[in-house]
Amino acid sequence: RGASQPGSPTKARQPSPSPERALPTYLRRNAELLTAEGTAAARDLALLSLLHEPELLHALQARFQVGIVYTFTGPMLLAVNPFQNLPELYSYARLREFVDLPFGEPAPEPHVYGVARDAYQGVWRAGSSQT
Q1: How many Å separate Cα 105 from the centre of its chain?
Q2: What does the angle CA 9 – CA 12 – CA 18 come to, to the nearest 5 degrees?
């Protein structure tokens, strides 16, 4: 008993992989990005637990579909070309949202005005090079 006969197959029990582990990396999903609300709230994709090209492209597409053009990925600002005029995106009121923030306070949303503000503050107030 217990010994296998020559020529008979042995059945070694292997633990079944978890569904998340069984998927190739490019098919794995972040729980944060499974809903439209979660995707719209994901302002910085570098903070996700899992980031790969398909997930990044999905997040950019889902955010674009709800009218969000800018997304951070760490210190990098990604922009999706809307192929239409969006005057409210670059309005004077939107500019004031970023200009009027106190020094050191984070930008309210990913936007080119926020990147410009951070660069300006880095040069003007902190005296640090932005290159």
Answers
A1: 21
A2: 135
Least Cα distance to 31 among 21, 39, 43, 23 occurs for 39
Reduced 3-state DSSP string for the chain: CCCCCCCCCCCCCCCCCCHHHHCCHHHCCCHHHCCHHHHHHCCEHHHCCCCCHHHHHHHHHHHHHCCCCEEEECCEEEECCCCCCCHHHHCHHHHHHHHCCCCCCCCCCCCHHHHHHHHHHHHHCCCCCCC
* Nearest CA-CA partner of 78 in 119, 44, 47, 36: 44
Q: How confident is the model at residue 6 (pLDDT cuts 50, 70, 90)?
A: low
More confident residue, 72 or 31: 72
Q: Give the tens place of pLDDT for each residue, 89-114.
A: 999 999 999 999 988 888 899 999 99
Task: With a cut of 70, say whether residue 73 has pLDDT above it.
Answer: yes
| CA dist 78 → 20, 31, 46 (Å) | 28, 22, 12
Nearest to 95 by CA among 126, 116, 74, 68: 116
